[in-house]
């Protein structure tokens, strides 16, 4: 195992990798509850979606671990599942079978793009300072998500306020703050596995507070996939609506995944001498295969999860971390009642503090060169404000090209970067 994953070479060991994998799982386990809830809006059987969610996560994450040998986990992505249910099905009026067909086509196209190195070229076209900014932006993004999910931050609609402080003296918000303080203390004392221990302690504290529900059972057989597996509808493939749905899915998934891979790899100092993510082509294959298989099983687009940063923060550096996460998803198939009791307030502390860890690369950004710092700033700030990693990258790349081209430094921009910039601009008109 040491030779296969090169544990010593990556300054890690089996215990660290397994613990990191479990931590990653605990911070992303909410998808097992949230994804069935969202896709049920599209008329899909929630029990079947639960099984499809877990199995697609296992398949994609195993490929990531054994093939790419990177510590990243995959599962049906947030945002992508909402577009599937609320836009394609509810707004456009198509069936979930139509939406699954779009996801299948997306996965096949991604396999082809990865095979011909198109996606790898896009990753390599991202300037170094924007790669650093992606890590920082993701940090703010996931910290914002954690605080929002726990109710520490709320989104009032009655007074025009964008965000406001929630009721932090009771309920989930109070539990999240308690968890942040406890987890922060564990980190300050250099306790190994601080994030995972913090999740467990916070979940336990939630029991007497009435936030964590005691499990009614521990074991449960996985629900059948039969209501949703291989339910495709190919009679609308060559329609404008299919093109719009497919293009949007491709764009969202491509740059969310690229952003996550680059951001987390940058934080973990895994980039090579040329600033590239190691085994990026293999990592992108894992994403493409996961999406294709996920569609066959009956779930929305599978993508690399930003919560992988929590495992990296615990020291995960190799594919063994990913395998450990995949193993937890297998266990979750049969222990769903137990994992379902972990409330968002218990995972919020891990997300918030990982957000802090992700800020480190900002020290390497040249803030005095405005052709570098302004695009980096746009990348950072637009991720949490637009609730989208991909939109943050769009603003960063386009502003980078504009500033370089209009200040006599156009030669600093590579041809692939110009091409990506043009595609970004076209995206807003389609």
TrEMBL record:
<feature type="transmembrane region" description="Helical">
    <location>
        <begin position="130"/>
        <end position="154"/>
    </location>
</feature>
<feature type="transmembrane region" description="Helical">
    <location>
        <begin position="284"/>
        <end position="306"/>
    </location>
</feature>
<feature type="transmembrane region" description="Helical">
    <location>
        <begin position="194"/>
        <end position="211"/>
    </location>
</feature>
<comment type="similarity">
    <text>Belongs to the nucleobase:cation symporter-2 (NCS2) (TC 2.A.40) family. Azg-like subfamily.</text>
</comment>
<keyword id="KW-0813">Transport</keyword>
<keyword id="KW-0472">Membrane</keyword>
<feature type="transmembrane region" description="Helical">
    <location>
        <begin position="377"/>
        <end position="401"/>
    </location>
</feature>
<feature type="transmembrane region" description="Helical">
    <location>
        <begin position="160"/>
        <end position="187"/>
    </location>
</feature>
<feature type="transmembrane region" description="Helical">
    <location>
        <begin position="98"/>
        <end position="118"/>
    </location>
</feature>
<feature type="transmembrane region" description="Helical">
    <location>
        <begin position="326"/>
        <end position="357"/>
    </location>
</feature>
<dbReference type="GO" id="GO:0005345">
    <property type="term" value="F:purine nucleobase transmembrane transporter activity"/>
</dbReference>
<dbReference type="GO" id="GO:0005886">
    <property type="term" value="C:plasma membrane"/>
</dbReference>
<keyword id="KW-1003">Cell membrane</keyword>
<feature type="transmembrane region" description="Helical">
    <location>
        <begin position="74"/>
        <end position="92"/>
    </location>
</feature>
<dbReference type="InterPro" id="IPR045018">
    <property type="entry name" value="Azg-like"/>
</dbReference>
<feature type="transmembrane region" description="Helical">
    <location>
        <begin position="20"/>
        <end position="42"/>
    </location>
</feature>
<feature type="transmembrane region" description="Helical">
    <location>
        <begin position="48"/>
        <end position="67"/>
    </location>
</feature>
<feature type="transmembrane region" description="Helical">
    <location>
        <begin position="242"/>
        <end position="264"/>
    </location>
</feature>
<dbReference type="InterPro" id="IPR026033">
    <property type="entry name" value="Azg-like_bact_archaea"/>
</dbReference>
<protein>
    <submittedName>
        <fullName>Adenine permease AdeP</fullName>
    </submittedName>
</protein>
<dbReference type="Pfam" id="PF00860">
    <property type="entry name" value="Xan_ur_permease"/>
</dbReference>
<keyword id="KW-0812">Transmembrane</keyword>
<dbReference type="InterPro" id="IPR006043">
    <property type="entry name" value="NCS2"/>
</dbReference>
<keyword id="KW-1133">Transmembrane helix</keyword>
